[in-house]
Amino acid sequence: MRHKTDGGFIVFYPGSKIEAVVRVISIILAVALTVVAVVALGKIPQQKQAGRLGLVGVFTLLVAGVLAVSGARKAEVLMGTIGYVMS
Question: What residues contact 62, with CB distance under 8 A and at least 6 apart?
């Protein structure tokens, strides 16, 4: 649906289409974060445990953020984050 304004047109999209796009983006980000985390942790030497631990924390926060933006409930975000950390 389009509405005319002084500066042009405003396009309105149904909520279901927006939710579908957000869901797809969330899935892509979750997969990408998993791959990047594995590669990044593999590049850090074993001697730098503090760096590895910090990186795990950063990726955990990023995954929790992606889950939260995707519209997941609190329990789903918590369980997804725990599952991510355990893998």
Answer: 33
